[in-house]
Design brief:
Elements lengths: L1 H24 L2 E7 L26 H9 L1 E3 L2 E2 L5 H10 L3 H4 L18 H8 L4 E6 L7 H4 L3 E2 L19 H17 L4 E6 L11 H8 L10 H23 L6 E7 L15 H4 L11 H4 L3 E4 L7 E3 L3 E2 L3 H9 L15 H5 L13 E5 L7 E6 L2 E6 L4 E6 L15 H17 L7 H32 L1
Parallel strand pairs: 1-6, 1-7, 2-9, 3-10, 4-5, 4-6
Antiparallel strand pairs: 2-8, 7-8, 11-12, 12-13, 13-14
Length: about 475
């Protein structure tokens, strides 16, 4: 009898180790993507050494909680300064330059094979996974074709505006669908990947009635003072809080990785569609639409098993690193597609934020050759950042360690460094068949510069005239 009982226990144990426990052991992954949220859009600093990397007005207690429980990346980047290119990069693990999706209305897409999209690769790595996408999609291929079992379909910005005064950006609607999906998978003991892509903080800025009233009563900050944006931003934070609470309530927090980031930097305001949010993004320069720091450096937080809490890493990370990271969490032996450019964050996450992400290239390139903003490209290598202004056929060089605001062009002091970096970037863009700026885009940029100079000159003359009258 004892021998039979021993044999049965042995069979049960073997089943758990080899099969039954595998499902429970596989991690769940939740990717939360904010829209147009700048680096200093949270109430907790993205870099503790830079106090201005936190807002002096916006309140985001849930994201602060997530950051304190996980790891922040002070140099976290969106792959592009606008929405659609960044979102393609997350799904395909490549830079926008390589996918040729460099603006919100791309015409010459390459290498975006839906069979090699993130959710399809997850299923190839482990067929047990259920996958879902809720919220804003803004990718040129249908989410179902990319491998999502559930989704809201090929949504864009327009689906994110509701007449519900308590949920005008559909934040809680999207959250509820994500929570229902997670609950269903947890109850069936099935591992899952879900991407929750909020419509906030995209224009038009629309807060819930509760948040609208709250921020009207609060004193504004010196850098941040828009109560409408602040209310919408905290609604977004409340959505994240519901996700975090649901993960805890479902009892899966010990086996769930959560990643939070944004698709690009701040937009300015409801009244200025393509304005530069200089004051809002400070100490970073420029904002959405520009490959300067204000357009591409964004919040980047990771929480989950084995990740040391309360750590801030200075390792540069980018949106197209997510695909390799998720696949390593799921199946470390899985072979990535040859076209993949991103690298896994896992070694950095496992070593308390120390070390660097290993990619095919030792640089990051941000390429915006055409669209509604000026044609610019930039490259980051170590502490240095090269900025190419296509319309002027010139480059600028910055040391981000000493000059995060990109205010001191050192290209004349280090001409060889600038020339060498420009040569590397141009060879890279040529090697991947990247789209160059069109002649029309360059002419528009030059005209725009001329108009700005005339506007500045007119302003100076007006100020001088007022000064003479006073005398």
């Amino acid at each position: 009898m004892k021998m039979k009982m021993f044999n049965r226990m042995t069979v049960v144990l073997a089943f758990c180790l080899c099969g039954g426990a595998t499902i429970g052991a596989q991690p769940n992954i939740v990717l939360i993507l904010a829209d147009d949220q700048g680096w200093n859009g949270l109430s907790i600093p993205m870099d503790p050494k830079v106090p201005e990397s936190a807002s002096d007005y916006y309140q985001t207690p849930n994201l602060a909680r997530m950051a304190e429980d996980g790891m922040r990346f002070s140099q976290g980047y969106a792959a592009a300064p606008v929405c659609s290119p960044s979102r393609h990069s997350i799904q395909f693990g490549m830079s926008p330059a390589k996918t040729r999706v460099t603006c919100n209305k791309p015409n010459y897409i390459q290498l975006c094979d839906p069979k090699q999209a993130l959710p399809n690769l997850i299923k190839q790595a482990d067929g047990q996974y259920a996958t879902a996408h809720f919220g804003k999609w803004h990718v040129s291929i249908d989410p179902g074709e990319c491998g999502y079992d559930e989704s809201d379909g090929p949504t864009d910005n327009k689906e994110g505006n509701s007449k519900n005064i308590d949920d005008p950006k559909c934040t809680f609607e999207v959250t509820d669908r994500a929570v229902a999906f997670m609950k269903k998978q947890a109850e069936s003991n099935q591992p899952f990947f879900v991407q929750v892509s909020y419509y906030a903080d995209h224009l038009p800025f629309r807060p819930s009635l509760e948040m609208k009233e709250k921020y009207k009563a609060l004193p504004p900050g010196e850098r941040h003072s828009d109560s409408v944006f602040a209310g919408m931003n905290e609604d977004l934070d409340r959505g994240v809080g519901r996700l975090l609470d649901s993960i805890d309530q479902l009892g899966i927090s010990d086996n769930t990785y959560i990643v939070y980031t944004a698709d690009n930097g701040f937009a300015e305001s409801n009244s200025k569609l393509h304005g530069i949010a200089k004051r809002k993004a400070w100490p970073l320069s420029y904002s959405k639409g520009y490959v300067r720091e204000g357009g591409i450096r964004v919040p980047f937080i990771v929480r989950g098993p084995g990740i040391k809490a309360g750590v801030c890493s200075d390792a540069p990370v980018v949106g197209y690193d997510l695909m390799p990271t998720f696949l390593e969490w799921i199946n470390p032996e899985f072979k990535l597609p040859e076209v993949t450019e991103g690298g896994s964050l896992v070694p950095v996450l496992q070593h308390a934020g120390e070390g660097r992400v290993k990619r095919k290239n030792d640089f990051l390139v941000f390429h915006y050759p055409m669209g509604e903003w000026p044609s610019l490209s930039s490259m980051i290598v170590g502490d240095y950042k090269l900025m190419k202004i296509w319309a002027r056929d010139r480059v600028e060089l910055y040391n981000l360690r000493d000059d995060i605001s990109e205010s001191k062009d050192i290209s004349t002091a280090y001409p060889e460094k600038a020339e060498q970096m420009d040569e590397v970037m141009m060879k890279y863009l040529d090697s991947i068949n990247a789209m160059p700026p069109t002649q029309k885009d360059l002419e528009i940029d030059r005209m725009g510069e001329l108009m700005m100079k005339c506007k500045t000159l007119k302003g100076k003359k007006s100020a001088a005239g007022k000064g003479k009258k006073k005398e």
